[in-house]
Amino acid sequence: MSFVTSVARETRETIGIYWLLVRIMVPITILAELLSRLGAIEAVAPAFAPVMHALGLPAELGLAWLTGMLVGIWGAVPLIFTLVPAGAMSVADITVFSALILFAHGLPIEQKIIRAAGPAMAVTTLLRIAGGLLYAFLLHRLLAATGWLSSPLDPVWIPMSETQGWIEFLFGLAESLAWMFVILLGLSLGLQVLKATGLLGLMMKTLSPLLRLVGIKGEAEHLTAIGLFLGISYGAGLLIREARSGAISPRQIFLSCVFMGFAHSVIEDTLIVMALGADIFGVLVGRLIFAFAAIAAVAVMLRGLPEETFHRWMFRSAAPSGADRSIADTADA
After folding, report:
1. Global pTM?
2. Which of 40, 119, 191, 246 has the highest count of CB atoms within 10 angstroms of its CB?
């Protein structure tokens, strides 16, 4: 197959993946925004106060955590310093809270994308939330025991909470979707160039020892790396196509998606929370160490899991049917 033909095929497949992501993201984003404007999120946030106290955080941050899980990091960020003044927090506080939302944010969108690749939505969602809580708790205990990062918070950036109208919100959503298409297409074409030049093989050979150490192998390696640096929408979005083709085994897809749930968008998201005052070792270095260790433990657990149990509880059937078949058709359009 010529390079031009390969690029044309890749472009068609990318457009199919993009429309699948749009169908997932648009209705959920609008629903989450509507619930936020109706006050539904604020009404249930106090139930999360005990969790905040267990992590050594002000109870008021429960609202920001809930908003982050439903809407995304950019939904949580404007709320943090409107709920708790910066002067009432320490560097440790913002680092622990940032770690918490880095693990689990934008769950309705990101987890539905992951489910489209195959892994069970309930299992991967629980793993992300539990992983975030465990890491935040361990980080809190470490910081409390050592006194590290106990200095008063002095953020570089204090975002303002602004209430946008629906027109501004929809324009912002459209802009985000446009940029997502540009990035997704660029990634797909970039992968073709890397394959054609042999650079992809060299990169994978360099990354393979670490990825294999935690159980992620073969074709899942470079897609996991994409998710690690650019986010679930891109890494798992590309995994959807590979899952349809059968090029990657279900267990490898599951491990890749769980890992991306623990650690993704490590450049952009880390820079955002560092601007709020979070420490890089807590939100990046420690998070990556935890993610690699946790996914290694998951890989060991999967090896002892019978195939029937795995496909019943942790991974949907490879053959799409009903609603799942319509999603697959959209992806292949």
Report:
1. 0.77
2. 119
